Amino acid sequence: MATTPPTEALLERLRHPRQSFDALSRTVREVIVAGAALTVGLFLMPFLVWLAGNRFLGPYTHGDDPRAGPWALFADYVVGLAHGSAVFWVVALGPLVLLCAIRGFLILLRQVQALGRD
């Protein structure tokens, strides 16, 4: 009985990621997508905020350092999250909320189209 070595099975899944993703249960897929959106909100959004702010508003100042970089903003962001500041949590949860809003809109759009066909 020939079995595929684990490394070959992993490589096969990596060659066809869409098929591997579709093979998962709907619940697991939803958790992965929600986790990715939350990860983007927690770790990527502060740097995007810094990039946009630095480009359009000027350098980020942090205390006595007039030219603090993105890591200073990220440190302030983490402190804001830890203190429960609503502004920082809006940034962190923004991608997840946007994803849910887009999905809700698409569901509503499909229902309106189905009613129009009846």
Instruction: Note the main sheet.
Output: 2 strands, antiparallel
For the termini, the CA-CA separation is 56 Å
Order of helices and strands: HHHEEHH
Using DSSP, what is the number of strands? Answer: 2
Low-confidence stretches: none
Name the shape in a single word: flat
Average pLDDT over all residues: 88
The number of helical runs is 5
Number of domains: 1
Structural class: mainly alpha
**Lateral arrangement of strands in the main beta sheet:** 1-2
Using only CA atoms, what is the Rg? 21 Å
Helix content: over 70%
Percentage of residues in DSSP E strands:
5-15%
Describe this structure in words.
This protein is mostly helical and 118 residues long. It has one domain (25-117). The protein contains 5 helices and 2 strands. The chain has helices at residues 6-15, 17-23, 26-56, 70-82, 86-117; strands spanning 60-62, 65-68. A two-stranded antiparallel sheet has the order 1-2. α3 packs across α4 (70-82), α3 (26-56) crosses α5 and α4 packs across α5 (86-117). The chain is flat, with a radius of gyration of 21 Å.
